[in-house]
Amino acid sequence: MRLAMLIMGCVLSACSPRVVEAPKAPGVSLVIKVDGSVPEQSRVTIDDEVLGALDFVAEHGVRVPAGTHRMTVTAPGYLPFDRAFQATGKRVVVNVSLRQSPE
Asked: What is the CA radius of gyration of the chain?
């Protein structure tokens, strides 16, 4: 069954790394903190569903159902960031740090 993701509005912090406040809507919220700059053409995928650009997803947050999920962030010239996380009904924060590929 395809995972339905809702992109939600959030409030950004003015400091770096980018910090997104958890939305107040019911459900489980995924908050992405980005360490460093966001590469162009970066893409966020959760449970094999492409959500969009990393900067957009980090800015808006994502609501996910309770359970185990896998988030992957890719960008040309960077090593993939892949992380499993457990959504338990509370805010989940994932720190994303992309490293340039050695070649």
From this structure: 13
The model carries a pTM of 0.72
Decide if 25 contacts 59 (C-beta within 8 A): no
Residue type at 96 in one-letter notation: V
Alpha helices in 1-102 (DSSP H): 54-60
Measured CA to CA, the distance from residue 60 to residue 79 in angstroms comes to: 24
Domain extent, residue 41, equals 6-97
Q: Which carries the bigger pLDDT value, residue 75 or residue 20?
A: 75
Q: Read off the CATH number of the domain in which 66 is found.
A: 2.60.40.10
Predicted confidence (pLDDT) per residue in 62-81, tens digit: 999 989 999 999 999 999 99
